[in-house]
Description:
Largest sheet: none
Helix content: over 70%
Number of strands: 0
Number of helices: 2
Distance between the termini: 21 Å
Radius of gyration: 12 Å
Amino acid sequence: MEREFVPFVLALLIAQIWFKWGSFSLELVGFLAVWFVLGLLANILLGALKR
């Protein structure tokens, strides 16, 4: 849970600032996609740092 906090907050900020598509569904999908990518990158970086 703690691992996803920073990617969640960053994705939320990105969605609030840049996603102005006029559709809740599109903005939600964009937010979830950004959160997924940031979470994946965070897991890869944290995994590389633990080695």
